Give the backbone structure.
Amino acid sequence: MFTDIQTPQKKLSKDIVKVTIISELISNSIGFIVLGVLFYLDDRFSWKDWIGWILIAITVIAILAAVWSTLIRPFLLYKYTRYHVDEEFLQLKTGALNETHELVPMTKIQAVETNQGPIMRKYGLYSISIETMGSSHAISGLQRDVAMELRNKIAHYAKIKEVES
Amino acid sequence: MMKPKRYHPLLMLFDVWGFVKNVFFLVIILFVLNYQSQSFLFKYGRYAFYLYTVITFIYIISKWLTQKYKLGDTAFHLYKGVFTKKEQTIPYAKIQNVNRHISVFHRIFKMTSIHFETAMSGEDTTIKFNVISLQEADKMEKVIEQGTQHDRELDDHDFGQDKLERQNDIDVEEHKEVPDEVSTLKTNAQSGRQNRVIHFNPTKRDVLKASFTSLSFLVLVPILVSLYFQLDDFFDLDERAEGLISIILSAWWLIVVIIVALVITSIIFGIVRVYLKYGKYEISSDEERVYITQGVIDERSFSISKQNVQAVEITQSLIKRLLGIVEVKLISAGNLKIDDDDLKISSLYPFLPEKRAYEMIAEILPSYEITEQMSKLPKKALWVRLLRPIWFIVLVSVALFYFQPAIWGLEQAWWIGLVLLIVVIYSFVILGYKNTKYTINDHFIQIKKGGMVTSHIVTKRDKIIEVKVFRSFLQRKLGIASFEIVNRANPVRHTELDDIPVAMAGSVYTWYMDRTKEIEIE
């Protein structure tokens, strides 16, 4: 832990684990279908040898990545993502292995919006994205009322502008 | 208050001049080189050209007739559009910096072009006056300065904060009244000029030093080559050149003469080029603003309010480091270029003696304190940095070992290349480690880093718009971390510093949180 930094306490909704697993399963299946088609074509048109080897290498990497992204990452994501909003700053902490702390002054926030994908909608979750002059940040996976309240809170605090010079 | 005004009529001539410059080669192709040609392309090309010319002239004239501007108390009002009318209001307070350019065209008519740069995103972020009289331009700058001050004073009265920003004593009485009379403005503009303190004019020695450090004498050859290829498009130079070359190669003394002549002209050309660009350079400032003017014939100037300086960057290339010369740049949130040139003029003289540079920053921006006592990276950082490129080196070695490519028939090329690559990578790593220094000093942060070219950034806490502190798994095990600060600039500027002790990185975070004490709320 960074000794000086007060780690933010608010967590995402627990359902984000399921949402991430489902969406990862979908995207991974698409990936494997594409790989399957390539293997079939390789066999059917007897492509060069080295193409087959590359396909096998890609498959091995894809399996490892799939295990990581569906079985491990969703839990870490939930466990290690924290946020905090007060009238002065937005604080974000993310990452289990690579740990990141972000600190954004409310006065520098230019826009805040909520959005929701189809899988998130099934679980009533929202994602909040926050635009600043320098970058954009997202808090993905909040319950509807939490998300709305947070959005309104940020919008309210961000209305205060400091003199820009 | 003034009424909406048309732009200067010479703007039309300026636009025509721009048009002529653009179509110059096209005209030569259509009407000089291929005038006899009756082929479809050239015949209709000529008709299309007539049509294009007519449309351009109509456009230029109607643009002048419909575009107007007004200087309000606190904002620019711009009117434009032939069919769809558009009115734009841009508060003076949004202006980040002012760029001027006096080209040869402007010099003939004793005019200037002036651009006011804002930090807004999207289109029309620059308020352009491409042709304007010098007096009018001076007057505008004065109105804007007073308009912004008026604005800021109102804020001061309401909140009474921002004591930190306002280091300079502003004569409140004088700026209270926003003069609407042209005569008072004029006198003000003149008195403004007199209040300026000149900090730097280059001497002949400076120019000579500049021309050698910038390696400007190497520029002639590429210019000649590109000229050759451009002319080659029109005339068949190749055959003639071949004849010439065979004559030259036949006599050795001719080769020597030509090489000597080329070297001498290169050096003279380089010096003249640098002189034209940096010979007449002036850095001056008054209480509110910093002014930089450069160029002997083609004059460019840049001015920025001291409060709008987002950061100061001091850069040094390897040659400059050997000669003790630095370049100091002022970072503004607005655009630093005028027109589409790639010449940025935000730099205080690019070839300043190191000591003078630091003195000058203190003179020009008294609110910036630069300390030379900076911390170095811990030893652990070096180990991490030595480890990082290893996966890349292993990957390249495996690939090279597998293919063993022979370059120029040399069998050993692959491992010689590998050794060279490793040497280059690690010399950068070690240089980078040695050059990196940082410090947090009250409300300033200084970060110096870089391998061959070093960059030293100094900025204030209230100018930083975002902070990120992060560490990888490896960094965590070693008790080090990285951080990144974001500054307004054009484009937004991210500055990252890697591998400092974890406690220091944490304190950057808490240091930044304290900014709330010193910012001013609207």
